[in-house]
Amino acid sequence: xxxxxxxxxxxxxxxxxxxxxxxxxxxxxxxxxxxxxxxxxxxxxxxxxxxxxxxxxxxxxxxxxxxxxxxxxxxxxxxxxxxxxxxxxxxxxxxxxxxxxxxxxxxxxxxxxxxxxxxxxxxxxxxxxxxxxxxxxxxxxxxxxxxxxxxxxxxxxxxxxxxxxxxxxxxxxxxxxxxxxxxxxxxxxxxxxxxxxxxxxxxxxxxxxxxxxxxxxxxxxxxxxxxxxxxxxxxxxxxxxxxxxxxxxxxxxxxxxxxxxxxxxxxxxxxxxxxxxxxxxxxxxxxxxxxxxxxxxxxxxxxxxxxxxxxxxxxxxxxxxxxxx
Length: 325
Ligand code: NDP
Known about the structure:
alpha/beta, Quinone Oxidoreductase, Chain A, domain 1, Rossmann fold, 2 domains, 7-stranded mixed sheet, 6-stranded parallel sheet, 10 helices, globular, binds NADPH dihydro-nicotinamide-adenine-dinucleotide phosphate
């Protein structure tokens, strides 16, 4: 019998209940996986709470995991039993010991990478890849602002941007997080609970401001972020850790300097097999070369998924968070 976290009604972390489940056998184009490590991402909290509605209840949350192929379905030729594979962009249902997966979402794991490292890097690393390689081609010498720089996406972003040669200004919620962000290549750290990040960015850049703001915090930072941008700068609003951003009056973007605003999602940048493979290859390269280290800040048992969500939403975590089934 397999175990899975099941959500029967949306709500707080307590709605995630460990449950015995039947996994069944894989159909055509599918494999059955025994999962060895599972990524916990902020998006899982939006699914659990109902902020991002899920059409069919009950459901098992989670978009990311690594594991071993135990059984292959009809017509599967690119994978075999015993292969180590991972996925970072669903389909949803990764909070489980075992599951059925379509092969089109799976990527073989390079031998040198450990399970915990992989579970901590696929969704977050692919996100960073599209943020600085696909949505915007970040260049050496460019200065950008990244909110929540010591988080899961944040620590990977700081290292990758540094590797490219960009200057990163990062916001963080504590002194401890400031140290972590700096150690990951963040050039200037702003403690945004105590300091006004808009005037700090202005001071750090001698009034030049930044070319791109990457804002996954949302409600508390969105409006200020617009004021950190140079003329024709790019506002990337990619998350809601503090709540959804306020409605935007499109006309306000003119006087602020003809700004660009985008609200991207990972799926629209990794939705085709070619995009997914390209992103994974680039990610495996920067991690394999040592340019980017994956910091798994905390791990929990599968049954402690609610505890993990609670810590993530309470700003207690740093780097990546994983579950071990
Ligand atoms: P993090 O590990 O970054 O955790 C979120 C961080 O946000 C916290 O640690 C905290 O850092 C900061 N934060 C600020 N205000 C709050 C608040 N009120 N409540 C909780 N946290 C707050 O999470 P992830 O790395 O998993 O994700 C980061 C962001 O990126 C999320 O918004 C997520 O939804 C988004 N995302 C978007 C994707 C996309 O394609 N659009 C894909 C992947 C992630 P601090 O204490 O330093 O302020």
